[in-house]
UniProtKB/TrEMBL annotation:
<dbReference type="GO" id="GO:0046872">
    <property type="term" value="F:metal ion binding"/>
</dbReference>
<keyword id="KW-0269">Exonuclease</keyword>
<dbReference type="GO" id="GO:0004535">
    <property type="term" value="F:poly(A)-specific ribonuclease activity"/>
</dbReference>
<dbReference type="InterPro" id="IPR048821">
    <property type="entry name" value="PDE12-like_N"/>
</dbReference>
<dbReference type="GO" id="GO:0044528">
    <property type="term" value="P:regulation of mitochondrial mRNA stability"/>
</dbReference>
<dbReference type="GO" id="GO:0071359">
    <property type="term" value="P:cellular response to dsRNA"/>
</dbReference>
<keyword id="KW-0507">mRNA processing</keyword>
<feature type="compositionally biased region" description="Basic residues">
    <location>
        <begin position="85"/>
        <end position="98"/>
    </location>
</feature>
<protein>
    <recommendedName>
        <fullName>2',5'-phosphodiesterase 12</fullName>
        <ecNumber>3.1.13.4</ecNumber>
    </recommendedName>
</protein>
<dbReference type="GO" id="GO:0045070">
    <property type="term" value="P:positive regulation of viral genome replication"/>
</dbReference>
<dbReference type="InterPro" id="IPR050410">
    <property type="entry name" value="CCR4/nocturin_mRNA_transcr"/>
</dbReference>
<keyword id="KW-0809">Transit peptide</keyword>
<feature type="region of interest" description="Disordered">
    <location>
        <begin position="85"/>
        <end position="115"/>
    </location>
</feature>
<keyword id="KW-0496">Mitochondrion</keyword>
<dbReference type="GO" id="GO:0006397">
    <property type="term" value="P:mRNA processing"/>
</dbReference>
<dbReference type="GO" id="GO:0071346">
    <property type="term" value="P:cellular response to type II interferon"/>
</dbReference>
<dbReference type="InterPro" id="IPR036691">
    <property type="entry name" value="Endo/exonu/phosph_ase_sf"/>
</dbReference>
Length: 608
């Protein structure tokens, strides 16, 4: 009898062939294959879970203390199995006594009355030896062990890959990528298996007693047909309109697979909005760029927390159909637009935390990108990078207000600002943040790049606040790119809420701003705060000065930029913005064909 005495640490690492799923098991158990007993045992939790199906078809999920002796669990399993046997016998007897159509007993149930069942023998084996009943659960339930309940054997799978969350978008549209949101334990998305099905057209053969929604989720029948897509992302076609989708997911970790799960779309596939503002732009970005180029996107995607206000619906965007302002609709457009750029870097502003986690991460992860998030207050910033080209080696985010007050880098600037108490108070009330990510080339470790992302204060009269925020940003970026990572180039993206005629833009491009610039009095003489500023960089706007990057009913102008270090980087290509006719097809932005009130900037950059 196996007692596991003194070998806990050794056995924790044991993984035998019987604990792994073969491809045949992933796609359905072969005849006579051993059942599975799945054990989840995490050191930081007091209990482990045990899940398996009894012979009567019932499924058991047990929570037991890790420190409990094995014998108690086996006794409980035996009791459950006995109850299941009794229920099955009672059901068989009931069917036998049920009158048939001819008036006699049901002929489909034959055989003698079942004898009273005795409690089945329940044992746990490891390496073909019975595990002693005084062994603690934490040690007993090893991967590769075999649980026997009567005549049925189960292979024990300890901590196999498993989904902790799996969900399809609420709305799916033809021509727009559908990507499940998923979270995993003991696995990774890249090692999972996916198989998409679509509902059969009405009138196709259906199982007796109901349509697809009545089917058991374990196996597709003739009411569902395979699409042939075995990737995480499925893009429905017009032929799918009116049909629901089903996805079978099998979690994996590169070595083995866990139990499959299936889910169906809540609503059928809907028709898309037709031509979108970004469709023509995608013609320039059909492929990922080669290693010498860095395709960069900067985009304010319009936070849901702002789009869903009564003020937005009635005052800011009264021309936009209400459904087109809903986050479930806009996410379809955002995902398709961003995926179609095949970008290496994507800097986003106005990103809701839930949108980042539930929509952007799963969708862009499926297209080879990984992202980091920095919350501001109600929303924040997100930076995504292509994993095949870059690895993240450092993050140096700041809050402008906190950095200005506490970082010695900005001591001189703060000393100037304290001379203007009203202006100082307004500056320190702002919650704006700066996201700074250091990326290293996967092909050449000597190549690193500093990617900065921000969203400056929005108010039209806040010119002097934006000047000070930019001064803080550039001083911090200089510290990161010159002191912490000497000599690396800078890409600075964002919604700067400043047109090319403003002091903020002049400061960035020229390298200085005089103390008598009119923007120091942007909110009136009371808040005037004259000071001269300089910065270290030679920056240029990679996409130039478009007529506008923000187009709403009451305003249009260029507020967004991709600033680059002109000493180290140059522009290979700027992806044309949508035409004015495309932008104004539905009067202004956002619209049914464009998800934001801003337009994405896209360009291909290269090292000099």
């Amino acid at each position: 009898m196996w007692r596991f005495s003194g070998v806990r640490a050794t056995l924790r690492g044991v993984r035998t062939a019987v604990g792994h799923c073969s491809p045949a098991e992933v796609r359905g158990k072969a005849a006579g294959a051993m059942e599975r007993a799945v054990v989840r045992c995490v050191p930081s939790e007091p209990k482990l879970s045990l899940s398996f199906a009894l012979a009567d078809g019932s499924h058991k999920n047990m929570q037991r203390d890790q420190s409990e002796p094995l014998g108690r669990v086996l006794s409980r399993i035996a009791t459950n199995a006995l109850k299941g046997h009794a229920k099955a016998a009672a059901a068989k007897k009931s069917r036998k006594n049920r009158p048939s159509a001819s008036g006699g007993a049901d002929p489909s149930v034959s055989g003698p009355e079942p004898a009273a069942a005795s409690e089945p023998v329940v044992k746990l084996y490891y390496r073909e030896e019975a595990v002693a009943e005084d062994v603690l659960n934490v040690d007993a339930w090893q991967d590769g062990a075999v649980l026997q309940i009567g005549d049925v054997k189960y292979k024990v799978e300890r901590n196999p890959p498993a989904f902790t969350e799996l969900q399809l978008p609420r709305y799916v549209m033809a021509g727009f990528p559908v990507c499940p949101k998923l979270s995993l334990e003991f696995g990774d998305p890249a090692s999972c298996l996916f198989l998409w099905y679509k509902e059969a057209r009405p009138g196709a053969a259906e199982p007796e007693g109901g349509g697809p929604s009545a089917l058991p989720p374990s196996s597709p029948t003739s009411a569902w047909t395979e699409t042939g897509v075995r990737e995480r992302v499925y893009t429905p076609s017009n032929a799918d309109i009116g049909l629901r989708l089903r996805l079978r997911c099998t979690p994996g970790n590169g070595q083995r697979f866990g139990p499959s799960r299936e889910l169906e779309s809540v609503c059928p596939v809907e028709a898309g909005p037709g031509t979108c503002t970004f469709d023509h732009r995608h013609l320039y970005t059909k492929k990922v760029t080669d290693d010498a180029l860095v395709r960069t996107v900067s985009y304010n995607i319009l936070a849901d927390t702002y789009a869903q206000t009564e003020f937005s619906r009635t005052v800011l965007y009264p021309y936009c159909a209400p459904y087109a302002l809903e986050v479930d609709y806009r996410q379809n457009l955002i995902q398709k637009e961003l995926a179609g750029y095949n970008a290496d870097l994507i800097c986003l502003q106005e990103v809701d935390r839930a949108v980042f986690a539930d929509s952007l991460v799963p969708a862009l992860e499926a297209f080879g990108l990984e992202g980091v998030f920095r919350i501001k207050q109600h929303e924040g910033l997100a930076t995504f990078y292509r994993k095949s080209k870059f690895t993240l080696v450092g993050q140096h985010d700041i809050s402008f207000q906190e950095a200005l007050e506490s970082d010695s880098l900005h001591k001189e600037l703060l000393e100037k600002l304290v001379l203007y108490p009203l202006a100082q108070e307004k500056v320190l009330q702002r919650s704006s943040v700066l996201q700074v990510s250091i990326l290293q080339s996967t092909k050449d470790s000597s190549k690193k790049i500093c990617v900065a992302n921000t969203h400056l204060y929005w108010h039209p009269k806040g010119g002097y606040i934006r000047l000070i925020q930019m001064a803080v940003a550039l001083a911090h970026i200089k510290h990161v790119s010159c002191d912490l990572y000497p000599g690396i180039p800078v890409i600075f993206c964002g919604d700067f809420n400043s047109t090319p005629s403003t002091g903020m833009y002049e400061f960035v491009i020229s390298g200085s701003i005089p103390e008598d610039h009119e923007d120091w009095a942007s909110n009136g003489e009371e808040e005037r705060c004259n000071m001269s500023l300089k910065h270290f960089f030679k920056l240029r706007s990679a996409c130039g000065e478009p007529a506008y990057t923000n187009y709403v009913g009451g305003f249009h102008g260029c507020l967004d930029y991709i600033f680059i270090d002109s000493d180290a980087l140059e522009v290979e290509q700027v992806i044309p913005l949508p035409s004015h006719e495309e932008v104004t097809t539905h009067q202004a932005l956002p619209s049914v064909s464009h998800p934001s009130d801003h337009i994405a900037l896209v360009c291909d950059l290269k090292w000099k």
